Amino acid sequence: MSAEAASPGVPVRKRSRPRIDLRRLGRVALLGPVSRGRLPDAIGHVAEAHRAHHPDADLSVLSRAYVLAETSHRGQMRKSGEPFITHPLAVTLILAELGAETTTLTASLLHDTVEDTAVTLDQVREEFGEEVSYLVDGVTKLEKVDYGAAAEPETFRKMLVATGNDVRVMSIKLADRLHNMRTLGVMRPEKQVRIAKVTRDVLIPLAERLGVQALKTELEDLVFAILCPEEHAHTQTLIAESESGQDPLATIAENVRTTLREAGIAAEVLIRPRHFVSVHRVRTKRGELRGTDFGRLLVLVGEDADCYAVLGELHTCFTPVISEFKDFVAAPKFNLYQSLHTAVVGPGGAVAEVLIRTHRMHKVAEAGVVALGNPYAPDPAAPAGEEPADGERADPTRPGWLSRLLDWQESAPDPDTFWSTLRADLAEDREITVFRTDGRTLVLPAGASCVDAAYAQYGDGAHRCIGARVNGRLATLATALGDGDTVQLLLARDTASGPSREWLDHARTPAARIAIAGWFDAHPEDAASQDAEDARNAAYADGPAGTEAGGDGGPDGLDWPPAHPGPAVFAGSAGEADGAAPACLVTLVAESFGRPRLLADLTEAIATADAAIVSATVEPPSEQRVRHTYTLQLTDADGLPALVRAMRDVAGVYDVSRA
Length: 659
Known about the structure:
Blueprint: H1 3-6, H2 22-31, H3 42-53, H4 60-73, H5 86-98, H6 102-109, H7 113-116, H8 121-128, H9 130-139, H10 144-147, H11 151-165, H12 168-182, H13 189-209, H14 213-227, H15 229-244, H16 248-262, E1 268-273, H17 276-286, E2 295-301, H18 304-317, E3 319-320, E4 326-327, E5 340-345, E6 351-358, H19 359-367, H20 400-409, H21 415-426, E7 431-435, E8 441-445, H22 450-458, E9 465-470, E10 473-475, E11 487-491, H23 503-506, H24 510-522, H25 524-540, E12 584-593, H26 598-608, E13 611-618, E14 625-634, H27 640-648, E15 653-658
Parallel strand pairs: 2-6
Antiparallel strand pairs: 1-2, 3-5, 4-5, 5-6, 7-8, 9-10, 9-11, 12-14, 12-15, 13-14
């Protein structure tokens, strides 16, 4: 998506660009060679764009859909003064240029008929089939008369649930929002701002996650112009000034072409201008812009192996900037994106960023899930008529983040909670993969903690989680996880155990936060008891905060502590516990995970072992670890091993030792 598409009046750039210029194509399709009132060639332009990607497509269904859309919308006008049919046509052309298959385009032409005309879903289903009907229903808004202020969040919930079954629903919605944003200038300023903010907070993150960069970049520029008009105008001036002089990227591009030609590597080397928001981000990061910061080199090759061959030649013949190297070919991003990223130093010290990808990678980078075609098309290699064992269609394009979103939204019946949580969830733009001990994986947002892993693995069963091991070392539930970590979760034997309020400070995923808050709502008496214990712990505390400590933990998914703990970690010495005197004093330190009722359970265990507490110190919890120091009086030193075992048996205690 071009920056100039978002900002009419900016001089057209002279550099070649492989990026799909949807706005220019939209004008051609809608206006054609004749006046706006006729639109006789409109569907012809859509068909031509569709055939470019799908030469054997059956166009008769598009013609029928256009006839129904045009007749049902006849007489309706947009706020811009154009016939309403221009909108579904523009949305359909956007998707056709991105390579969407026929079913998506058919539904796109009809996407407003059920919402704005007398056409019913049953009519769409009867005329065009179940899939088209499902897509049209997925993008149809809920009525404000029925939902009031909750209409917008509940409409998005409905679309996201529909997207969970068919990602083509969101493809249509994104193209629909792009065309509406292009024509937003006819709206009142306050409405422009409101729509732009929703686009920024919800639609742009969804476009990013679905990999549809061609839509995402133009949406970003349109939002940028509305919400940050001064910065947008300044960026526009900088881009215009950069085009008035010699382009330093052109020289480097020619040197790269020569290098690859001499190496016998067939490649297309292009200059890919940055869009407005990208230029603004670079300027914010670096302060002063270099001449090469207004674009990047794009090298397109035929095969995956050619990407690495190009990389080798560039790093051999130019000085590479190693810190800029990223391999998204071997490890694709979670939104399907694949490319090699590097940077090289050209003549005069100019640094050029370089993207290396195959032509197919480039298509997917631009169009994301739209470029994958129909995810439900029959597998030509599968036996005729064979269906999945569970009777449901498997969607290869359904990513982990969408599955997580669909899970937590079921626990957020309140529209305001859903709406605010959705925005927060979509703001997490990176993912990590952590490993369970059974070899399975958990996909979590970057920055997720062991709390998030617990709820992702066990659901409500995570309420009784008391600790974890990360990469074999004992860790608190507050521990942040990194990509590739192995996590083992430790559960208390008491199934009635509940979470700690502190967990809310460490939970990043909506599923964890909603589950924790729900437990406290359902157990008000336990919540009050925990608050009282927190107050007692604070009253006992008189030392420095505890620190991280390593140690051993139990196996993943097993109760903790073990049913038969090992020998006590202490040894007799010439001190207060030595000998067989009728009474003795001993000081013990208990290391534990913080949890509700921990202090009460420990003091009860001490009393059960016939020991009296002379003094006690409970240090303030540090990352959910608590250190207790007790000076105890025993009637007989021989009772010390039993006392230590009793304290170690308390859920959450992972070590007891002599002070």
